Amino acid sequence: MRLGWLALLGVLVIASLAQAQNRSALLVAIDDYPFITDARFKLKGADLDLQYMTALCQFGGFTVATLKNDEATRAAIETVLTKLEQNAARGDEVLFYFSGRGSVAPDPDSFDPFKDMEATLVPHDGQEASAIFDLRMRRLARFAQTIEGKGGRVTLILDTCFRPLTSRSGQYRHYNDVPKCVLRNTDQEVSVKQPIYSGPGTFLCATGAPGAAYEWLTSDTDDTWAGAFTHELAGIASVHIQNNTSQTMAELMMEVQASVLDRERQGYMPGFRPIPPAEVLYAKAEPYGRRSIFSQPGAQPTDPAKARVEAASKQRAEQTEQLRVGVQLMDSVPESERAGLEAKVFGTLGAQLERSVATLKLVRRGGLAPDRLVEVSKEGDKWHAVVPNEPTDDPDQKPRFAADSFEGLFSTGLAEYFERSALIYRLFRLADAAEPTLSAAIRIDTSADTVRHDDLMTLTVRSSIPSSVYLLDLDGAGLVKYSAPIRVFPDTSLKPASSGYELSLRGRVERMTAVGPWKLRAIVVQLPEGVTLPSLGVAESEYPKALLAHLKELLRLIESGKARWRASTKKVDVVQ
Hints:
Elements: H1 2-18, E1 23-29, H2 46-59, E2 63-68, H3 74-87, E3 93-99, E4 102-105, E5 118-121, E6 135-136, H4 137-149, E7 153-159, E8 202-205, E9 215-217, E10 225-227, H5 228-243, H6 249-265, H7 278-283, H8 285-288, H9 303-321, E11 323-329, H10 335-345, H11 348-356, E12 360-362, E13 372-379, E14 382-386, E15 400-403, H12 406-433, E16 442-446, E17 450-451, E18 456-463, E19 468-474, E20 480-484, E21 495-496, E22 501-508, E23 516-526, H13 543-559, E24 564-574
Parallel strand pairs: 1-2, 1-3, 3-7, 7-8, 11-12, 11-13, 17-24
Antiparallel strand pairs: 4-5, 5-6, 9-10, 13-14, 14-15, 16-18, 18-22, 19-20, 19-23, 21-22, 23-24
């Protein structure tokens, strides 16, 4: 009876695809593998992954078929892939999506079974210790070659990993620290064939090998999980769908990478590095330079798909407008103290911080990694906090705080640091959210439009009127950095030049600057006559408080309309 039902399911799936006109999608999601019985190691995101991808595909005009959990056997997947190959015609667009566990298998062409192993996808009936039912990358390459050989186009999107890096306990982290793979041959030193996929078409994957893919909670209030890669991709694509803005597949993928790569470098979700890397996306105009497949004129998405995309877009917008702060209790914090400390962070202390800093959001869990991750540790009777992903190359410039109690960390400068960071975000976002009030011609010029880490670069701000300038930037990882005026360079007033006024600065491209698009923003401000801001030319020990007071007063004057402003933004590409 069960075999008959599965056979009927396969017929229905194939029938729905056979009726497709030009655009067909097979979406596979598995979070329940029979050989994984311990709840701690189970995946949880198949439902939401399918909802997100189904909605995106409907906006892309795809006819969608799905296989979930026990529907997604190797035979069922193979049957649909074969039918798609048979039905392919010139101009067709075919998408294969997989969310579940990956693994590696011996390459039958290799004399050494543990050298250049092949990346695989594990179906629902995959085996814990054997790759016999796995879907190999060579099968996906053959699938893509067949369809593209008939004049069609193929996109493969994989939310999985194959051979993870060493991971850490995730009990107190903002994600599920269970990489999406099946680990086999753990007693052997193995290598994975590179690149993991060498076939034609558009290939997007949560990570390479070695590397890791994870799931995370998509809400602070419920127990709904999704693949982090799928959630990021869906959120970014949804924003562009809602705003009706054009986007290429390369631009979509680089935005996904931008939102996770810097966090990964700081130890958040270790090994989560979506591929292909930026340099490949830049170099291969075909296929990555073509329009996103999730935007098709004339598509007729259902109401649930519209609601899902609208909600994903709204969530993404809210998250990018906030300074999201995560508090991570390190291993040195005694187990007996953890629960009480978490209650304090997300109770009275958190409420006080969020009341005092309107754009700050303390995140217990949830999609989109925190903009700032505060690591709290305990050494003897002393409490310490450090912000590892402060955007600076100098380890001595990472904000550090020490106190005799956990609560004391917040009164010894940590709360002020949060407020200062939130004000910097607010100042940067000003140009995106408000109408300028200053009539002036503003321009940023740079000595190069493409730079590498450690390059020296000259930046010149020009204005048609006398004014002062604030310099900030947003790197490819979504981190905002405040550059000027600062303590050692407190005067950023534009000086008379041959035509108008200008200010030139020369600096080095820091290694903390993420690869990808780098937005340099100059905000030119004219204060009311006779008004001055708190001085930044103070002693080093007084500077944090002075900068906080300066930014508070600046934003008060701007937002009340008393100070006039205008911004200019220049995009520079940071490459490896």
